[in-house]
Amino acid sequence: MGSLIWFSQILCLSFMLLQFRVQSASPSQSSLSSPHLCRSEERSALLDFKSTTNLVKYCSSSSDIKQTWNESKDCCLWEGITCDKPKGHVIGLDLSSNCLEANLTTKSSLFRLEKLQSLNLAYNEFSYPNISFGFHNWKSLTYLNLSNAGSMDSSLLFDEISLLSKLVSLDLSSNYGLLNLDNIKFQMLVHNLTELRFLILDSVDMSSVVPSSLLNLTPSLEHLSLRSCNLQRNFPSQVFQLKKLVSLDLFGNDDLLLDNIKFQMLVHNLTELRFLILDFVNMSPVVPSSLLNLTSSLEHLSLSSCNLQGNFPNQVFQLPSLQFLDLSYNYYLRGNLLESNCSSTLEYLNLANTNFSGELPHSIGNLKFLKKLNLDSCQFYGSIPRSLANLTELTDLRLDANNFGGEIPASIFNLTHLTFLSLSSNKLLGHVPSWLFSLPSISYLDLHNNCLTGPIDHVEMPNLILQRVYLSNNEISGSIPSSFFDLVNLTRVNLSSNNLSGTITSDMLLKLVDLEELDLSNNSLLSLSNNDTAVNYSFPNLLSLKFSSCNIHKFPSFLSKAESLLHLDISNSEISGSIPSSFFDLVNLIVVDLSSNNLGGTITANMLSKLVNLRSLDLSNNSLLSLSNNGIAVNYSFPNLQTLKFSSCNIHKFPSFLRKAESLRELDISKNNISGQIHKWEIEGMSLRILNLSYNFLTGIDSFGSGNLETVDLRSNLLQGSLPIPSTWDSMQQLFISGNNLNGEIPFSYCNLTSLGVLDLAYNSLGGKIPECLGNLSNLAFLDLRMNKFQGRIPNSFVNKSELRTLTLNGNQLEGILPRSLVNCSNLEILDVGNNNLNDTFPDWLGVLPSLKVLILRSNGFHGAINNSMPASYFPQLRIIDVAQNDFMGLLPSNYFQILRGMRDVATADKLEYIGDGQRGHLIRCTPRGQCVVEIPQFYYKDSVKVVMKGSERELVRILKFFTTIDFSSNQFHGSIPEELGELNSLKGLNLSHNSLTGQIPSSLGKLAELESLDLSSNKLEGRIPEQLTKLTFLSVLNLSHNELVGHIPEGKQFNSFSNDSYIGNSGLYGCPLTKNCHEEEEPVAPPKFDEEDDSATLFEWKFALAGYGCGLVLGLSLGYIAFTTGKPWWVVKEVEKYQQKLVGRCKRRHKKRKTEKPNQCS
């Protein structure tokens, strides 16, 4: 946009110089004699034209020929008219930007101005029906501007213009992109217009023009602009013959390719170039070093979004005349700003969204003419240099999304012309300096997503120009100072997601008379005062108010005065009580979110019907709020309502009053108490796309409304009988019916749901065979049929390029082998076929799937040895593998463990990330005529699997991306445990129990720094427990029982927390927590375990129960009771206490909790 404005200004200046000779012939008012200089026939022609024009509605213009073209004045003095001095002919007519509309036919009076030399009709709404045989009357025309001048007929227009052989300047730009210039017309145009110096055809469709046709352009051409002309294929090298070119603009020709050789020709031949604009031209083959040959006269260079790659040469910054440089959105273009490498003439520098990096040098302050600096989304770091204060002409400074740290330099206060300052998404520290709000020219201030702390300081000199302030996502605390509300021209304020406290009153907000948007969400200590109900106030311009997750408690009373309000979000703010009736008088509301509060009372259809403009209403998670069906006989229309959410409320009946809500697209009334049947008449009038009725008590649904449904969620109800038949589900993308009481088979008609991306039928009693045709659904991404009674084989019909990402068949009665067509599912991430009757060997052929992360084969009849010579490229992302309770045998596959790259060096993200997050499919829709469109729907299916971890089976409702586990238990593996397992340093769980493994426990397992659970029980392992295992600081479950281990049990860290159960069945082990000491032959009864907090009564009771074992249990217990209750005899108590201290000193350590710190985005 910046380059467009800059270039347009220069071009307009050139046009003005071009017309200077024409306009210099215009008489001054003092030189005109009476009678009028203007010739009567031309004056009559102008008046006739005036009578045919009208003003365009909703268009503002500073001039109006209806008023200024006065018959009492000489027409040479009329606005927009230029006459020649001696003869009074009208030679110039400028009606640009007059908001005029008129028909320019062949008989238009304008064509009677035969001496016309300059015509500018730009930015009007003229139409040109039957315009042929009109332009030839203007034989002297040298300047023609029809830019955005209305709708034209391409076939006639270019024929007529080609007759204007004296044209020096032609501008046909824009015109709504409706003009089409074919190759023949273009050749005719350039062949006849041999005097052209300025040619502007922006947004004219030239896709059929052969590049070689440009060879015929006149060599006198100085300015060529072909913006967004849909030029195709290779860059037209013929342009390089135009050696007088001063400006070349090919912006927006995305399909145009410029290679390195042609670019070298361009810079070599066009030595007069001052303006070069190639934005969006594909320059990926161009080597950046080729830019070194650019002419020294170049003033304006714009190469945004050209796909430039490699290292940018710093010498380009030193071009002596360069004023404008835009390299933005070349994501792979590298470079830096070294000391003293920038031209002092630069006024505009844009490196946004490139890979420029390094520190911002102090010498940046040498660019004293710089007006705009944009380094948004680069890789710069370090402090913001104080030398920016030297850029006294700077108006626009954007350093967003880098890694700048330190405090905001106070020297910025010297930038008195600065209007736009954006430093968001960095790591800036310190307080928000109050002087920012006092910069004399600032109108836009954005510091969001930094590490700013402390309170906002008192604003000493509030700026009266500042309109937008964004300080969200920082750590700002304390109250908002009252002086902040003295910034009276603020229109948009966002202070959300901080630690603000205190109270906002309506009196404060009243000062901001122009306020349009206010967002204070996610400040849990910030409250809103309601103690001003008697005050007469209004908020005439307030459009959006967000107080989500604050400390409001009561419904804000001042909202009744915000009559212009369009968007309201006060969700999750602990608001209780009923919604006041005055709220439903805010008839302009479009989006409302009151969810997750403590609202009560009843919402009636009559209340909702008042909000005639409402599009989205979310009242979810208000457990006391109900919805009334009263007024069911009234046909409420709700003309604009598109989204209605009442999840987790107190609704007992389906809201049938919505049956006429024809605009309603999403209805969510899940997690309520709706029971019984939904009848056809209650829902058939809706045109829903998303229907969520999950977690209710529904027993049946007669109808699903219109055929536009895309998502239906009926999970966890009481639905019975067979699956619903999808007769009108042509658009269905997501179908959830799990957790019901459905039986029968899957209807074959489900195979006709070609748009289906999610099919979840889990946890029912469905049976029969899985239809083979389901594998043909190329858009199906998630198929969940677990915990049913399906029999037979898994379909072997998964098509090539299938979108399938999750296949879950756990807990059925399936048999046979895994279908080999699964190799076609290149997007498959989760395959769970556990707990079936499958009989197959290990599916190493699945290793070719590049995205497979979870493989569960548990509890089947898989058998044989696991291939130990798989290619190193196999299973690159596998995170979870469970082959437990099968019949695998042989050695553990050491080479296989080596290739599991997905279990090594897995980075833990700052926030929890799950498999399937943001999952999108590629949905292909085709019309009956064969026209296909690719859509990208957002799926909200959440992957889940069951794993055995820490000794028990648990369901992972969400699967963390960094969760990794191996379970090879309960098979027939023998031999030693491979050392290679120790390389899987991201492993969380390892279970090799219940096999026939021998040898020693490898010390390399001590390198599994993330390990939380280790189970090697019920094998034949021997030797000592490696001391290296004590390094596993996250290990919370250890089971080495029932082996042949010997020696002293290691002590320290997590090992001090494990119980006797971890080691039982190893007769050669001794040490804590076992009671057997070194060289002891008899093992006494093990005492129970004690914490420091354990009640001492337990200790006394056990001690004396053991003493009485030989003398009599009753006597021992009695002695223990007396000693405990009386403290006597003292020597008994003393001995017991001494023993307790000794025991606790050795074994008091219990299970330690893993401590995790909150990720620090500012570290």
Automatic annotation (TrEMBL):
Main location: membrane
InterPro entries hit by this protein: Leu-rich_rpt (IPR001611), Leu-rich_rpt_typical-subtyp (IPR003591), LRR_dom_sf (IPR032675), LRR_N_plant-typ (IPR013210), RLP23-like (IPR046956)
Membrane topology: Single-pass type I membrane protein
Gene Ontology CC: plasma membrane
Protein origin, superkingdom: Eukaryota
SUPFAM superfamilies documented for this protein: L domain-like
Keyword set, alphabetical order: Cell membrane, Glycoprotein, Leucine-rich repeat, Membrane, Receptor, Repeat, Signal, Transmembrane, Transmembrane helix
Domain Leucine-rich repeat-containing N-terminal plant-type: 40-84
Location within or outside the cell: Cell membrane
UniProt signal peptide: 1-25
Family named by the database record: Belongs to the RLP family.
Name the record gives this protein: Leucine-rich repeat-containing N-terminal plant-type domain-containing protein
